[in-house]
Design brief:
about 50% helix, two-stranded antiparallel sheet
């Protein structure tokens, strides 16, 4: 992992934190799945990836999923600590496959995950008579004794429901960083975000990933969007570190390696837009002043009306 290039130690010595908005994990994962679905499928479900029609975009089955949640069971609607999606994946043979995605972000107190996976499978089957392929993406540490399957046995009746698990902490860092699969850099970033307890750690991870991404031979659009996801999950709050990271990005830009627009440039663009608006207002006042001057209104009166210095108004008259 890259060093911090002389960044001061300790959060209190770095500078003020300027970002207070909370990370929206639900929106992050949904957007990531939507943008890089087949890359994620290749990583997590390679057998299905081999059969999928990669030329057709998968479809989020939001209406269908809302239908299965339309029950009187209040437990279904309670938790905001995990996200679930059902997608329809077109196949090369002309059929399709449903995938139940579960993003687990709650950790040790997140209830019984295998039971929850089976519960959603049962709801889907009860409503649509479809057995989905299922994938649980585990972003946090789960209870040690928790199984990665659902099973029960009752008086000679046995059921075992196995589903796919993609556990971030078990992914190999070197493999992710050297992979030719674009999604792996984002998975590494998500893994790093869980491990990062201090802003300096996030800063270092960001530098590493920005440098790696700049060297990849992927399309400019993929690089741009990947960096946006990486910067979102490794979200810097500290003003000084944001500036230092921006300087590093500018260095890469001068080397011709940057082909995307990160959060720092977006913020600068917003500042320029705001500045442009203010300049536009200023120009509007001057145009108004010129019009009033042409109609014989005195500079003193115009200055009070427009909120401009009287000297500026007199200069416009010349």
């Amino acid at each position: 992992m890259a060093g911090t290039d002389g960044v001061e130690k300790g959060n209190n010595e770095i500078g003020e934190d300027i970002r207070n908005d909370r990370f929206d994990a639900d929106a992050f994962w949904k957007a990531l799945i939507d943008r890089f679905f087949y890359s994620l499928l290749k990583r997590a479900l390679p057998e299905l990836y081999a059969k999928a029609d990669l030329n057709v975009k998968p479809r989020f089955l939001e209406k269908e999923f809302l239908d299965i949640l339309n029950t009187g069971d209040p437990e279904i609607h309670k938790s905001a600590h995990f996200a679930d999606y059902v997608l329809e994946v077109p196949l090369k043979n002309g059929g399709d496959e449903w995938i139940l995605f579960h993003i687990e972000a709650q950790g040790l107190k997140g209830g019984n995950l295998p039971e929850r996976m089976n519960f959603y499978r049962c709801l889907i089957y009860a409503h649509y008579r479809r057995e989905p392929a299922a994938l649980a993406i585990i972003t946090v540490t789960r209870p040690r004794k928790e199984e990665r399957k659902y099973s029960y046995s009752r008086f000679g009746t046995d059921c075992i429901y196995r589903y796919n698990n993609l556990v971030l902490r078990e992914l190999d860092d070197d493999e992710l960083l050297s992979s030719d699969n674009p999604i792996d850099l984002v998975l590494y970033a998500a893994k790093a975000a869980v491990k990062s307890k201090r802003e300096l750690q996030k800063y270092s991870y960001l530098r590493t990933l920005a440098g790696l991404l700049s060297e990849r031979g992927w399309s400019a659009e993929d690089k741009r969007d990947l960096m946006l996801f990486i910067e979102r999950v490794l979200y810097l709050k500290n003003k000084k570190l944001i500036e230092q990271y921006g300087e590093y990005r500018q260095q890469l830009d001068r080397e011709g390696k940057i082909m995307y627009i990160p959060f720092l440039e977006r913020e600068k663009a917003n500042e320029l837009i705001q500045s442009g608006m203010e300049q536009g207002i200023e120009r509007g006042k001057e145009e108004m002043a010129r019009s009033l001057l042409a109609n014989g209104v005195s500079p003193d009166v115009i200055a009070k009306s427009a909120g401009l210095p009287v000297e500026q108004i007199r200069a416009l008259a010349n």
